[in-house]
Specification:
The chain is an alpha/beta fold and 270 residues long. The protein has a single domain, classed as TIM Barrel (Alpha-Beta Barrel). The protein is built from eight helices and ten strands. The protein has helices at 27-39, 47-54, 75-87, 120-128, 148-166, 182-190, 224-231, 245-259; strands at residues 6-9, 11-12, 24-25, 43-44, 64-71, 92-95, 132-135, 172-174, 195-200, 213-217. Strand 4 (43-44), helix 2 (47-54) and strand 5 form a beta-alpha-beta unit. The two termini are 25 Å apart. Keywords: Signal.
Length: 270
């Protein structure tokens, strides 16, 4: 299995809120990028096929790619899903459970700034038409800086709420902001999630860690040349990745700022 580009999108919109705009592509750009994927001879496969291969199952096609979307923006229902449907492409949507609107009510709360998010009816419809629905925690917290019951609620509680809503097991998880730690990954696995995606801006591979799958984040300013390199298996390293001293230091800094009451904030850096 060659390097596998697992593309990470957030919002696909013409008019996103300022906070998510750097992580948003327009519908026109999204269509063009799907064309580039096809023109490169890549076959878009469901994430579960990559996960099965990483767990020792059947190998992927030689030129596989995966599409993933984080957070649960309403534009996935109105814009992304119709485009994927017309092209017959699979995708995984990771929803921040606390940001999803219940029938006739308000969401229970997340750390994401205000934006138009999906409701549970829409999530159920997407699930019914074949979009894989995964979990993205309860509130979009930095999981490697929270502990005890709070972390359990984010990992275990969000899984229960998601499964209650869609009526069947959910097995795919994505770390908010891409942040995890060995302890977080152990808890995610113990909760019954069989895969988890990070970011790392690296390709996945046959030897990638199924609890820390590498992805390539598509941003509003991702140049066409970079995207073309990704579709050709160039321009980035291949996972699995080992934690660097920088990663450990950055985690320690974020834990310290949270401890002193000034946590590192800002938009999601999945």
């Amino acid at each position: 299995m060659r390097a596998v580009p697992v593309f990470l999108y957030h919002s696909v919109s013409e008019d996103p809120p300022d906070w998510i705009a750097p992580y948003t592509v327009s519908p026109k750009t999204f269509r063009e990028q799907l064309d580039r994927i096809a023109d490169a001879g890549l076959t878009v496969v469901p994430l579960r096929r990559l996960v099965a291969a990483l767990h020792g199952g059947p190998a992927l096609p030689a030129n596989a790619a995966v599409l993933t979307f984080d957070d649960g923006f309403a534009d996935f229902y109105w814009t992304v899903a119709p485009i994927l449907t017309e092209r017959g492409l699979p995708a995984t949507l990771y929803v921040t459970v606390g940001a999803i609107h219940p029938p006739g009510g308000e969401p229970t709360g997340s750390l994401l700034p205000d934006s138009r998010m999906l409701n549970w009816r829409q999530v159920g419809t997407l699930d019914a038409v074949g979009v894989e629905i995964g979990g993205h925690s309860q509130t979009h917290a930095q999981l490697d800086t929270v502990y005890g019951q709070r972390r359990t609620d984010e990992i275990v509680g969000s899984k229960k709420r998601l499964e209650d809503a869609i009526g069947h097991p959910a097995t795919a998880f994505a770390y908010p902001h891409g942040y995890s730690s060995p302890a977080v990954r152990r808890q995610v696995r113990a909760a019954g999630w069989t895969s988890a995606t990070a970011v790392e801006n690296k390709f996945s591979s046959a030897t990638d860690d199924p609890m820390r799958i590498c992805r390539l984040m598509v941003r509003s300013d991702t140049p066409d040349s970079v995207f073309d390199d990704w579709t050709a298996g160039r321009g980035s390293r291949v996972g699995p990745i080992r934690e660097s001293l920088y990663t450990r230091g950055w985690r320690s800094y974020r834990r310290f700022t949270r401890f002193v009451g000034a946590p590192v904030g800002g938009p999601p850096k999945d």
